[in-house]
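Quick note —
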Amino acid sequence: MLLLDIGNTNIKVFEKGEIKRFDLKSFSFPKEKFYYICVNEDFKEKIEKLPNSVNLEGKFSLKTKYRGLGVDRAVACYGVFDGVVVDAGSAITVDLMIDHEHQGGFIMPGLSSYKESFANISSKLICNLDEEITLDRLPLKTTEALTYGVIKPIVCVIKEWAKDKKIYLTGGDAKALFKFFENCVYDEKLVFKGMQKVIKEIEC
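Predicted structure written out below.
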């Protein structure tokens, strides 16, 4: 079974338990049957014309009052019965699930966006985030200060809504956040697990 998660610039392909990432501009779509979700409006019409493609959007229903929930967020939540789903990519999305019902969620800039904004303020603020940062003391150098200013608010707001619920982390920057949560699992396949659940239900 071949699964595609199509974003705005990249595409993730899931096959035989492995995830591979490709640049969307140079990607050649497979000739065998594949299932996909797509948030890239420019590519949707092109992909839908492929006879071997199956769009999973609209083939499942996530119970929610949220208007305009993206299919990538919806399918990630679809595989979680109870907990907080955090997708840390180019943007960080946080969604609360209770008894398989989506309670709502919010969106924050991704870590790379914070780095870019600092660089726009001053050339002295151009640096990589400190992977060894701790949040239990005030920073004593600029790299730590920038990292603290980025990570601390993200962690605090996620904990505020998670409370005692399990946190499910996925996305390219998930590993950078994982160590700051206790009741947490890192699952890079979370979106694809949701897609598999949808496929199983529609083909039964």
